[in-house]
């Protein structure tokens, strides 16, 4: 063998030796350091050490496979047992939690020994955009911060928050909507002009906070106005407020009506307030934004407007099932009147019963629902006429005094003059006055009328809700 051959053989042997040495060192190092690294992540026993969390899932004492199974199970239970809804103004929409996808593998790869690590999750952007459009096209405008919403959704899902979660979408607009007049109503001021003018100077506006109530009696008490306005003036104001908020989603928490419909109000739209009888008018703002009632006198008109963020739905009112009750005529006889003489003591007025409904419409115009608001009844006030005695009439002593009342109105008559007769008992009690008939028959009729009113109306303080 030549020297060159021997030299090549030694060189090959050296290369082989080096390769074997490097391979052995690599295998040894991998076994040693790999075990050390794995131990740092999962502990010396191959499990995660104390206080190791992925999202809100505690994986302490679990192997990587056990941790994977546990996290996967928790995400499935979270999607099955919890709810998420989007709220925008008056609208609430349920969101299917399958819109979220969890990446458990990638989440575990980032886990080290101890500490809290994020549970990686994504949201289906197409489904999210479709849901927002379904709620309102306003949520697809440039002012709406969809990226901010997406971030909050991912944070919520990553921590697997339990229970019912609600996202208030109105808070994700870059700029708050400008307040607008969302409802208004006008009533004639007439005789109450001076009192209403005094009100507009003392109370130009009232702010109603989100998720709060406004009690008219409480408001005037807190502002030292209880003795400044009569029950009639407060009722005038309350009726205008009532008619205004009916065209919104405000709730009517307490409302009363008079026995006789006031001249300034329309049947179905009256609200009576009387501090002495604790008859209040209370409305509730169930929205997440505040609204302001503004009061103005324009010419002879008392104007009330409600300003705030525009509503999503449209609200319209309808009066239905109206029935009118014609008054009867109560005839009384008085011997002091000359033959053929006749006097009208009280003019009769029609009675009415009417129902009020509120229709809620989608922006598209479709009717979402129809809400019953009230069923108001105003009894008729009968006409009272006093006549002279009939000529050549010889009263039978066994019969009633000739001054007793009779009812005559053709086909619709009643032998009992007090039957179905109603007077403004509220006014009578308020003024503390009553008229004494010369013959005494009118007083008897009025007593019967009061009794009849109590049967019809029940307790004075009963609220119409």
Q: How would you summarize what this structure contains?
A:
The protein has helices at residues 3-42, 64-81, 104-109, 125-135, 146-158, 193-202, 216-222, 231-245, 425-431, 441-457, and strands at residues 52-54, 57-58, 83-88, 91-95, 100-102, 115-117, 121-123, 164-168, 180-188, 205-208, 212-215, 251-254, 282-285, 291-298, 301-308, 314-325, 329-334, 342-346, 351-361, 367-378, 383-388, 405-407.
What does this protein look like?
It comes from Bacillus mesophilum. This protein has 465 residues and is of the alpha+beta class. The protein folds into four domains: 1-42; 52-172, no CATH class; 178-311, no CATH class; 318-465, Resuscitation-promoting factor rpfb (Resuscitation-promoting factor rpfb fold). The chain is 31% helix and 27% strand. It has ten helices and 22 strands. It has helices at 3-42, 64-81, 104-109, 125-135, 146-158, 193-202, 216-222, 231-245, 425-431, 441-457, and strands spanning 52-54, 57-58, 83-88, 91-95, 100-102, 115-117, 121-123, 164-168, 180-188, 205-208, 212-215, 251-254, 282-285, 291-298, 301-308, 314-325, 329-334, 342-346, 351-361, 367-378, 383-388, 405-407. The strands form seven sheets. It has a four-stranded antiparallel sheet with strand order 9-15-14-10. Strands 18-21-17-22 form a four-stranded mixed sheet, with helices on one face. The protein has a three-stranded mixed sheet with strand order 2-1-6, covered by helices on one side. The termini are far apart.
